[in-house]
Amino acid sequence: MSEGDILEHVGQLLNRWQFSERAKNLQSSIIREILKDSSKPGVINFAGGLPAPELFPIEGIQKACLRVLEKYGPDSLQYSLTTGVPMLKQFIAQRISTIGFDFSPDAIQITQGSQQGLDIIGRVFIQPGSVVLTEEPTYLGALQAFSFYDAHFVSVKTDDSGMLPDDLEYKIREHKPVFIYLVPNFQNPSGITMSKSRREAVVALAKKYDVPIVDDNPYGELRYSGNPVPSLKVMGGEHVIQLGTFSKIISPGLRVGWIAADVEFIGICEKMKQACDLHSTTFTQYVVYEFAKDGALEEHIERIKYAYGRRRDVMINALRKYLDNGSTWTEPEGGLFLWVRLPNGISASKMLPVALKAGLAYVPGKYFFSQRPDDSTLRINFCNATEENIVEGIKRLAKVVKEAD
Q1: For a designed S-S bond to 366, which of 52, 108, 355, 373 qualifies (C-beta 3.0 to 4.6 A apart)?
Q2: What whole-number distance in Å separates Cα of residue 110 and Cα of residue 269?
Q3: For 228-283, how does the pLDDT look when each residue is reduced to its tens digit (9 = 90+)?
Q4: pTM of the model
Q5: What angle do the packed helices 387-404 and 348-357 form, to 10 degrees?
Q6: How far apart are CA 290 and CA 311, in angstroms?
Q7: What structural domains and CATH numbers belong to the chain?
Q8: Is the CA virtual torsion 159, 161, 162, 168 positive or negative?
Q9: β-strand 360-361 against 213-216: which pairing, if any?
């Protein structure tokens, strides 16, 4: 069945059955649509937020699966607690605890990846028209998750150090948001990291106006250079709800993430989680625990940090060498992404079909803006390509940009 036939069939179904307005209005993720084209032979894929599959710890996961079945047997295949397998919660609590700030396992809610964490946050806070403050730009998946609950987005001016406190305070007072959504570490899509002083200012405003911060932190452990910055959760305590995941540091296919917050808030999340899917997959929770508990996770993280750091450097050097027409880009200290700004008003979205024909996929930046989209920007992933393909991909990008200029 062709794509046109599918769309026609969907249209007929919408006319026959009484779908909710939310179901009819929800848009597909543009990244998922681009990935359909990027999977074609010969296309170098800089588009998705994909980790490198050749670096997945296949042998370690295989051994962990066998240990799970041997040690836990039927328990690993049975229903489990809504908040998560206790051993895994204990492990996560210990890993994210810091000097002077100890997490309790009771402050952890296991989720099916951090994307489900975003959905649960939306269920807890958002009513139609509720205001959510975001960075400018911000994570597309969060916009999609919160849009389902009819959120009204207001973007806060953002520079290379993060949200501008003066604009944040103005918009808190003007719009009375239900929460502030941030990706403070190696942000998706821009790659920037919020500075310590900016974090202190944002936390101070959250406390002053009693507005929660949702700290989405999937990339925090993927630092390749520079110095670590204290987490918003440590700084903000009960005012910060932190999302974490094993997707980028082990495998996204396992779908294991978590929400870390005050115990009382986790109690509310537990009810929402029950309504979603009763509990996250028991078997994969045990697998993550068995793989990670004896130091294998730390060893694996060091391995991927080395590889990703090299790929970041290769991409930056290739941009410096080949994209010399006035384009600018971020040079992140970690994470997965670079953010490119094209010169002379070149439209990244109009350029995309040409790029795909030339064998290169990226995500136009305009989709990452909750307000005032900037179509002269684009996001590229440096982790999911070999060093050779990174250089070739940047050559293709430079050629397409030159032709569009």
Answers
A1: 373
A2: 10
A3: 999 999 999 999 999 999 999 999 999 999 999 999 999 999 999 999 999 999 99
A4: 0.93
A5: 120
A6: 30
A7: 13-56+299-404 (3.90.1150.10), 76-294 (3.40.640.10)
A8: negative
A9: unpaired
